[in-house]
Amino acid sequence: MSRNRFLFIMGTVIALILLTVVLGRNSDSPQIVAASMLATTLRFATPITLGALAGLFCERSGVVNIAIEGMMLAAAMGAFVGAAVTQSLGVGILAGILTGMIMGLLHAWLSITFKVDQIVSGTVINILAAGLTGFIDTQVLSKAGLRSAGLLPQIPIPILSDLPVVGPIFRQQPIAWTAIILVVVVHYVMFHTRWGLRTRAVGENPRAADTVGIRVKYMRYMNVLIGAGIAGLGGAYFTLEGVPSFETQITNGRGFIALAALIFGGWTSFGSWAAALLFGAANALQINAQQFGIPIPSQFVGMFPYLLTIVVLAGVIGRAYPPAAVGTPYETE
Amino acid sequence: MNAQTVRKLGRAALLPLLSIFTALLVGGVIIWLSGPKFNGDWFGIKFVLDGYGGLFLGAFGTQKAIIGTLVRATPYIFAGLAVALAFRCGLFNIGAEGQLTMGALLAAGVGFGVKGMPLIIHLPLTLLAGMLGGFVWGMIPGFLKARTGAHEVITTIMLNYIAAQISGYLLNGPWKDPTNVTAQTPKIAESARLPALLPGLHWGVVLAFLAAIAVWYFLWKTTWGFEIRTVGANSSAAKYAGINVSRNIVLAMGLSGLLAGLAGAVQVAGVNYRSTLGFNVGYGFDSIAIALLGRNTALGVVLSSLLFGGLRNGATIMQFRTQISSDIISVIQALILIFVAAEQIIRWIYRVPATPDDAGQATLSKGWGKS
């Protein structure tokens, strides 16, 4: 993703927030509206960012991942159960990551080992996660009467977090902070390390990668697992930072928005993050539109991320190019 | 039907049947794990058998159960055919849910908005509106793919959400039933409703079977169908043979959407008599499973739909009798899909050798960007 495009998206995010401030000026003071918009934007952006980074690892290595939603949903439950059983939030995070990785292992096993169509494999995981979590929720959890271990506390940065308006930016929960750190780390790993180069080689031209001695299937397995672990962390967000309980379909399509953010961001780390913020801001506008009495039907704002993704994919504003070999199983000769 | 055809059908059905059997077995283990296990009757196995007994009884056990299964299977047949038709053109229509939503919305709009017309005009008009909604919603991704190469999987997922937002807007806003707090349209006029074939069974099921025959005829007996299948089998070969690939992609997606839209329209005109928020959820992924289980054939889709409809219908009785959550059905569906898609697993378990005519499966998607 080019710098200009990144700045353009960030500008749009700020414009959306300012728009809300202007539209909502009659009901509340600008400070309150802006602070609320910022906080909501960041809150929505966290799982989308993590989901998009999860997809980044998979797809850069050549494995399509439409199963981010399913991985996050399963992980949301895994994290909740892990935390509630042990009454430890740390264990909850680990359980979430692990659950995500188990779903990732299934995706890798089906699509890399068995060469099942990767979209079919993703569909399997989405249906399975919805069914299993629903079944366990009604069949086991509701009877077991698990007590939630609560939510992860905010980690404020001193001084900065006390600033007016922008304060909420510096007052976030651990998974939200991790998401921002991961954006930088993933960018570095993917574009400045040997691992990243090999991953991209496998995703662009697996035959060439194979001839120079890169183990294509191993790289794909590892990247799918890493990605799924990140999706697991994103899932843990819902039950450890969002609400202290598991609800059916708690991810509510956020995994698909993450996929959209990945594509919108041109399969790059910073691009996905910018897109996640943009979608988060759109979502915040949708929520605040009702609260601050803004005269736009919230559903029209809600459509915005999806429309934008189609527009980008169709090449109307800045074409998005996927990794060349994404979607094709690798056949050794 | 001669002996050779029977053998061929038997071979084609073998792997799907083994997949269903294995999925039920694994599903049984999951139910067992959630049940009383070692302190129940027969180490908890009775719990599983009771559950499956209720499932079967509720699906096919009584006349009422069979009627319920047929009603549940009807939208599955339409939506499954939709996905299968797109697959035949090498397109992955993951947007049946959105197309179904648009079909249901438009059908409901015509159903309650137009008044004072005889059934003979109003009902076809209602169904046509549903087809139109689905057709347009399916054609958009087809057009985008043909013109810009934008992958239909992503565009259809996005269009699903856009359709959900449009539905949310209309059902909470201009089209909301003023007499009710729920987000839904008013009831459609009597003249827009599908009449009953038997008590509890509407004519939509007949339409579904007719649609299956029509899709079969279209794909295998017409030039248009031949072109679509050629594009699906090998789009570059089709291009060299002078077939207009773009036109066929748009057409296949449009027709696929039309069928999905009809699924929504029939559900509105035959069962709900209105469009409600969220009734469509789950049809998109279920219909993919149905198309794959039915190997993208019209007959296969009908049989798979009857199975899925039966499972959904029987789950209610199962939940009532044994308190086993009906969500287990989604798990079983996912397991069926795993075994159908990764048939090597089934071949390995049951030692089924590969046969040459298994190679005739439709090619599926090939990644994001390429067309």
Chain-wise SSE layout:
The complex is a heterodimer of chains A (333) and B (371).
Chain A: H1 3-23, H2 30-60, H3 68-86, H4 89-113, H5 118-144, E1 155-156, E2 171-172, H6 174-192, H7 194-204, H8 206-211, H9 216-242, H10 254-264, H11 269-291, H12 298-313
Chain B: H1 3-34, H2 45-61, H3 63-88, H4 96-113, H5 119-148, H6 152-172, E1 196-198, E2 201-202, H7 204-221, H8 223-233, H9 235-240, H10 245-272, H11 283-293, H12 298-322, H13 328-341, H14 343-350
Antiparallel strand pairs in B: 1-2
Helix pairs in contact in B: 1-2, 1-13, 1-14, 2-3, 2-12, 3-7, 3-10, 3-11, 3-12, 4-5, 4-6, 4-10, 4-11, 5-6, 5-10, 7-8, 7-12, 8-10, 11-12, 11-13, 13-14
Describe this structure in words.
The complex is a heterodimer of chains A (333) and B (371). Chain A is mainly alpha-helical and 333 residues long. Chain A has a single domain, classed as ABC transporter involved in vitamin B12 uptake, BtuC (Orthogonal Bundle), CATH 1.10.3470. Helices cover 71% and strands 1% of the residues of chain A. Chain A is built from twelve helices and two strands, in the order H-H-H-H-H-E-E-H-H-H-H-H-H-H. In chain A, strands 1-2 form a two-stranded antiparallel ribbon. With 371 residues, chain B is mainly α. Chain B has 14 helices and two strands; from the N terminus they run ααααααββαααααααα. In chain B, helix 13 packs across helix 14 (343-350). The model of chain B is unreliable at 358-363 and 365-371 (pLDDT under 50). The chains are: A mainly alpha (333), B mainly alpha (371). The interface between A and B is large, with 50 and 53 residues.
